[in-house]
Specification:
The chain is α+β, with helices and mostly antiparallel strands. It is built from twelve helices and twelve strands. Among the domains are: about 160 residues, Beta-Lactamase; about 160 residues, Heat Shock Protein 90, CATH 3.30.565.
């Protein structure tokens, strides 16, 4: 792929650049060695010629230099074609020479500019001698040809060896490193692209070196991963089957839980209804007395009216007024019975959340009116209402049922005499209803069990132990709370807390009305 070629190209270019740098370095070192060797050899030869010539000149130290046979000296040193001149170092005056006048004049001009020059096939060197003399030695170029030839041959073979070595290094680098790396990269890229033919690297192309070990380790790793993948797929299949079974069990469990929840809710509603009816049973004698009195009044006044009407005579003014008074009493007593029946029906209806605007003051007074139908001995009831509490959106019947249970427990705790205080209080976003008695209080050791179902301190047969438990559940159903404070011997205070805001409290309930049922009840009472 493009990434593969890009990576390999970069590796090849980098490696080639390194090798070329090494080769050029060796080549430069070789050329430097050749040039250095040439200069050293020239200096050596010139120094040797100068030393020989100076020894020969010392033999003629007292003679005129112009009389020295330079030609013989040159031949003696083996420099047949060389040209020599001796100058005074200060004046640059030719003291002796072995060349014609034109050559001498030209050399004087040239030597004034440079020390070592090339001139007419000669290499001219200016070498200082002792005794304030200076030697000008012009050697023919062919004097150094053997040296040049040997150095050239040496340089050629050295450069050739460097190039061959470099090519061999590149080949080895490609064969040992780059080619296996290319195979490894191709296999990895093919594996990433999901091509099965690139999953494993063939053993035939795996070299016997460190890179080959990496490739072999890769193959083993791929085989292990493939084995793990197969195991994971098997486990995933088993997990999917278990998940299907679990989902089936979950649906079955949800159905059963839903069914049991409905049954539990129905049982709870039946239990609440039974508790209400039990409370009504406790009020039966008071209710009978409350109903008999209006009925007796209605019967007496109805008999008087019937007797008056049976006489079939005109009524006097006093009789008409008495007649109207009797009818008024009958009407008042009938409305009294109607109101009593309405309160009883409201209290005894089935426990279903029905939201309505409720004034706590009215609910408390209505509950007290029902509760006092039965003789409560010398118990005094007092009420203190907080005028800041607004109307609540709640269920009137459930609040009444909680208050009836709390009042009944308070009366039982006070043994028929004392004072019960019912008061309301606004506390932040909650309205509080507090029922305070002057009873014997609740012992510390049983306070943690007071809301437990079937826990009671009453004798067997006088209590079920469900009253406070039901009240606690009803308070939670109204999104409120029921709590108490008590000290043994100092009485108890039970506090019902109800929230003020409907949107925060009953967002999962719909506000319902019971106008049709209420109309039916009123019709029954009226009949």
């Amino acid at each position: 792929s493009r990434k593969q070629h890009s990576l390999l190209s970069q590796v090849v270019l980098a490696t080639t650049a390194v090798i070329l740098f090494i080769l050029l370095s060796f080549l430069g070192l070789t050329l430097y060695f050749v040039s250095t060797s040439l200069r050293e050899y020239q200096d050596y030869r010139i120094g040797w010629y100068t030393l020989k010539l100076e020894k020969s000149l010392n033999q003629f130290n007292n003679q005129d230099l112009s009389q020295i046979p330079l030609q013989k000296l040159v031949l003696r040193m083996g420099l047949e074609e060389a040209k020599i001149a001796i100058l005074d170092k200060k004046t640059k005056k030719m003291l002796a020479w072995q060349m014609d006048s034109s050559e001498l004049q030209a050399l004087q001009i040239l030597l004034g500019e440079k020390k070592n020059i090339l001139w007419k096939g000669f290499q001219v060197f200016e070498v200082p001698l002792h005794s304030q003399r200076q030697l000008v030695l012009a050697l023919p170029n062919k004097t150094f040809f053997p040296l040049y030839r040997h150095l050239f041959i040496l340089s050629f073979f050295a450069i050739l060896a460097i190039l061959v070595s470099g090519a061999f290094m590149i080949y080895l680098l490609y064969r040992i490193i780059l080619r296996p790396l290319e195979d490894l990269i191709v296999a990895n890229l093919g594996t990433l692209e999901g091509k099965p033919e690139y999953l494993l690297i063939p053993n035939s192309i795996i070299p016997d070196n460190e890179i080959g070990q990496i490739m072999s380790q890769r193959n083993r790793l791929i085989l292990k991963l493939k084995e793990f993948q197969e195991k994971i797929e098997i486990q995933n299949e088993e997990l999917r089957q278990k998940q299907v079974e679990l989902e089936s069990w979950s649906r079955e469990l949800e159905k059963r839980v839903e069914q049991k929840t409905k049954e539990l809710k129905a049982a709870e509603e039946r239990l609440l209804q039974a508790e209400k009816l039990a409370a009504l049973g406790k009020l039966a004698s008071g209710i009978a007395h409350e109903v008999n009195n209006p009925l007796a009044s209605i019967a007496v006044y109805a008999e008087d009216i019937m007797e008056t009407l049976q006489e079939n005579r005109p009524l006097s003014k006093e009789e008409r007024e008495e007649f109207i008074h009797s009818l008024g009493i009958i009407e008042n007593q009938a409305y009294r019975l109607k109101e009593l029946t309405r309160k009883l029906l409201n209290f005894a209806r089935e426990t279903k959340i029905q939201l309505d605007e409720v004034h706590l003051e009215g609910v408390i007074e209505e509950t007290l009116a029902l509760f006092q139908l039965k003789d409560r001995g010398h118990i005094q009831f007092e009420t203190h209402f907080d005028p800041r509490i607004p109307p609540l959106i709640t269920d009137r019947s459930l609040v009444q049922q909680i208050l009836m249970n709390l009042l009944d427990n308070a009366v039982y705790a006070m043994k028929g005499e004392g004072r019960i205080l019912i008061r309301t209080h606004l506390a932040g976003s909650n309205a509080l209803i507090m029922v305070e008695d002057e009873g014997h209080g609740i012992p510390q050791e049983i306070q943690s069990k007071i809301f437990d179902p079937f826990f009671t301190t009453k004798p067997i047969g006088q209590g079920t132990g469900l009253g406070l438990s039901i009240c606690y559940g009803l308070a939670r159903k109204l999104k409120g709370s029921l709590d108490f404070q008590s000290k043994e011997g100092q009485g108890s205070i039970f506090t019902l807390s109800l929230p003020l805001e409907e949107t925060k409290v009953f967002q999962h309930y719909e506000k319902k009305t019971d106008d049709s049922n209420q109309a039916k009840r009123e019709t029954i009472c009226h009949d």
